Amino acid sequence: MMSPDSSQSSSDSQAAWAKLNSGGKKYTPLLICRGANGFGFSLTDDSPVGVCQVEAGSSAEKAGLQENDRIVEVEKEDVINTSTQQLAAIIRHQQKTMEVVVWREVSTQRVQRTGSQQTDRQTPCKTPVKRSGSKLSGLGSARKKYKQQCKERKAKGRRDGVADGATVSEKKALKMVAYLHEIEGEFCDTVERSRCYYVSQLQQSGQLDEDSMATLFQNIDMLISMSRYFASKLEIVVRQADKKMIATAPEIYLPRIEVLKQNYLKYVEGVEKAEGVRLLLAEGLSVPSPEQDDILLLDELIYSPLHHIQKVAAAFSLFLQSVGDKDPSLPHVQRISSELRECCELIESYSQVSQPQFHSPAKSKSGPLDPEVAEIEERLEFPPHVKEFTLCEPNRHKIYWSEVKVIGVKHKLVAYLFSDIILVARQRGWRDSKLSVAMDPVNLCDIIDVDYGAEGSDGVFEIKLHYMSMPDQELCTLTMVCLDLETKLVWKGLLRDRLVRHTPPTEHSLSDQV
């Protein structure tokens, strides 16, 4: 693991340098590099930019290493004599993050070139190596030259995407936007494939069986949940931009902020429309013969939020490029980058939309076993007060999970929402993956009322499930306290839709406190 103390790393580097040079040969450091599951090297002639990433299992030649190079792991001060075969094995089996220095033997044979330049005959590292005492300074002149080149390029006005001469914070922000575009594209492609499955099935057979309907609603719920989260983050970013940047340079930032605001409002409108269409789908697509309007609503549901994600991402791209024109080191740039990173992570987690499995109505309703449910079942442990049961059954799928608190239990629990039941369990620490079942599962068909609590109050994220326990038919209450409002809203939407589908409306009196 990397040492958190930079001074300790410097001391270790000097110790490793002394060990290397004790044998009579002289070595020069090429670059201190950090990497997980592989090394990153920079063997360019005059600057430490353009790092070549070497993935696990790659060859040493791809890293640009030579037969007599040495690798020093700074923390252990270990010197690795790198034949290319040895280094390939090291890279292939590297599973932790480490800090290393690449050393190359300095040739004592030099030739005089034009002017006063001197270069090595054998080593490709053309930067003259300066050493004062035991301090390492082989990259000092390279950094100065690189900074000078950045200033010259900036003076010429050469700015593209990740701009020449851009600051570190600006580069990170722009790269985050590019990553957002990439993840968004993958997400759109996946949703498009699912949409084609749904529409083709509806047009051919005029109905979706129960399994396909469950998958359809699962995907739509994930899309809407992601949209709500993305909209909340956009609101934060717009608010930050409005306050921080208009006063700084209104002639530059004001047009960008207006574009950002307009697209944000359109995006929120699309999310609200998607939620309305979702309710119509619950009522319309479950009937045997859906009309063409239902298919159009499905298209609108999928494309309305994603269309505005594209617009917002484009507005972000223009907005962040303009940030660097005046003061690219302002703290809000880092905050915007952080907000985008969270959005990207969430979109990435939702991008793996499960593909629906269509079945002919004439076939058996017994569907395949879900491997994800089977994996959860392997982790279950049943205490004496809980009767053992089989979790992995045909047509049962995991819909959602989150950490919750339960009234009367001091430990933090995990609540799983499956297609037909709710399971509450305790995870015994992060290292132990076992799940201790806290209570008998709650069947969705046994729930007779849900109280979502009053929203808007500080710290009130309760969801009370009133259900008839089996087999004694006693009226029981499960009170889950979500850790944040966003989690509560997701649970609220998922429970409301599934309870409507599992039991006729006459048997439900769902509390609708907003």
Automatic annotation (TrEMBL):
Q: Where is the composition biased (Basic residues)?
A: 142-157
Q: Name one GO cellular component term.
A: plasma membrane
Q: Where is the composition biased (Polar residues)?
A: 112-125
Task: Indicate the segments forming the PDZ domain, all copies.
Answer: 29-106
Check the record and name the Gene3D superfamilies matching this protein: 2.30.42.10, Dbl homology (DH) domain
> One short Pfam family name for this protein?
PDZ_6
Where do the segments described as Disordered lie? 112-164
Q: From which domain of life does this come?
A: Eukaryota
Entry's PROSITE patterns? PDZ (PS50106)
**PANTHER family listed in its UniProt record:** REGULATOR OF G-PROTEIN SIGNALING 3
The protein's name? PsGEF
Q: What is the lineage of its organism?
A: Eukaryota, Metazoa, Spiralia, Lophotrochozoa, Bryozoa
